[in-house]
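Late entry, written up from scratch paper. The run itself happened at the end of the previous shift, but nothing got recorded in the book at the time, so transcribing now.
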Amino acid sequence: MVRARKAMVLGASIVVAGVALAGLVAAGARALGSWARAEGGTESSGPDDPLGQGESTRTPVVVSAAKMMRFEERLAIAGTVLAKRFALVSARIPGTLDRVFVDEGDVVEAGVTKLFQTDALKLEQALAISRHQLTVAECAVREKEALLEKTLVALEQARADLARYRKLREQNAIAQQPVEHQEAQCRQLEADVRHIRTLIDLSKAQWEQAKLNVRLAEKDLADSLVVAPLSGCVSKRLKEPGEMAGAGTPVLRIEDSSVVEVSVFVPAEYYDRVRPGETRMRVGVGSVQISDLAVTFRSPAIEPRLRTFQVKARIDSPPAGVVPGALANVELVLAAREGVGVPARAVVQRAGKPVVFTVVGGRAKSQEVQPGIEMDGWREIRAGVSAGMSVVTMGQTMVDDGTPVRVVEEAAR
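Output as recorded:
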């Protein structure tokens, strides 16, 4: 009796479970049917299905139209803004810095603004000594000229006496010895004249040398005061008063920011594609964008260690913010041309060849193409597609030539 009652309860439970499962299957079928109707599909072919297949069996795709556009082959490189004209100013006369008249940030004018001075007191004293030596040399010349004048007078007197002695000798009024003695006196005075004239030449040479020494001392004193070699701004002050300064050791750096250059180092493989005056450059410095700059310089040789070469573009009267030392984001335009473009994702590989897919009669059709430059998500098609032709841009990876497709959306042109 108990066993019969348990069997009846178990049978009732199985019936209830079967009814619940049947309800769930029916609900699932209704939901699937609703989804299919929402998608516009049917479960069987009909008059609107010329391929004899249900819409639900076709691969959904999105198409876009090819269009004419400008393609550029660009090389993005980080560069630096440099001053076109700058000067590392060193002392012309080695010595201790007496004064530095300018500081970083000061504006200077070429040939006018005083920069710094070295050993002014020592050079002033050297100039005074040179001028004193010049005076001494001048006096020596005058002394020798006076001595020459005195000796010439004595020679003239000796010659007159010799003439009288000779007349007296002709008259046998005197002996021969006084005549010979006077002749020797004349020859000695003549030699003295030659000697004094030589001394005068020597003194004049020393005088000229003293004049040159004065001019050199004056120049040294003038060179100890250094003025700005170009107009611009002091960007660095490298030494302070009291420090030693000499040739080749910069004291100040001056930069003319009215003309700057953007400098980049480009990989060696692009050397023959960069042409000064032809290749263009776009530059971004902070929020400032500068377009259509012509390359003005290309290194004559490639740097052998890094395999790069330098490229520069000049900017006259640069906008605010474009200053020496700033980081520049550079796009070097290596090639530019007009061509047919499609979204880059539309180009896929089939059998090792680049193709795009079009939709013809509800089926995908592959079209082999010759791709070119890729830029900003678009791909240049040099052959195989014309402007205005619709190509598959989504779903193309799921189809092949002849695959039934359904266009669910057409991308905006």
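The CA atoms of residues 78 and 229 lie 32 Å apart.
(Scratch paper discarded after transcription.)
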